[in-house]
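In the design runs reported in the main text, the only information available to the sequence generator was the tokenized backbone. The following block is the verbatim input for one such run; it is reproduced so that readers can re-run the procedure and compare outputs position by position.
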């Protein structure tokens, strides 16, 4: 499923694709996930097909059953990107963001209403850019290190 605007999205299809993406990444069958969630296989298949029945409790149960980020499913819906749920299944990034947001709300309370939206956009955009730079920079550093090691091996280990 390709990314599109939220108004053009069938949320049931999007949720279905997100759940399947996580389940397949984990190498699980529908029956495996249903058993781990403690629900009948048909019930799970109905939920995974986007036909409804996904409560908050089942969302959390799905995360536990698949050792994934349950909030990744919500983020997949919010971003209209079903693959996002699988992308964050290991690092639990959506859970991390949700936890920080909860702490933020607890700290500021009703004062959160005083935050200017454009200020928040600028700050969150900088944070996102920093994360992109970190990921891409790490990949470049790893690639450089591997190139140096391979060159050293070709040279007969003279640089060691």
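Verbatim output:
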């Amino acid at each position: 499923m390709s990314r599109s605007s939220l108004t053009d999205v069938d949320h049931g299809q999007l949720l279905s694709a997100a759940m399947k993406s996580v389940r397949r990444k984990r190498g699980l069958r529908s029956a495996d996930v249903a058993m781990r969630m403690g629900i009948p296989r048909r019930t799970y298949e109905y939920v995974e097909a986007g036909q409804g029945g996904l409560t908050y409790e089942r969302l959390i149960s799905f995360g536990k059953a698949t050792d994934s980020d349950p909030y990744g499913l919500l983020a997949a819906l919010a971003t209209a990107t079903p693959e996002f749920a699988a992308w964050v299944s290991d690092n639990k990034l959506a859970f991390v963001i949700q936890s920080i947001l909860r702490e933020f709300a607890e700290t500021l309370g009703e004062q959160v209403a005083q935050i200017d939206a454009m200020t928040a956009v600028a700050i969150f955009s900088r944070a996102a850019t920093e994360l992109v730079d970190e990921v891409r920079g790490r990949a470049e550093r790893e690639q450089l290190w591997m190139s140096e090691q391979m060159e050293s091996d070709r040279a007969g280990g003279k640089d060691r």
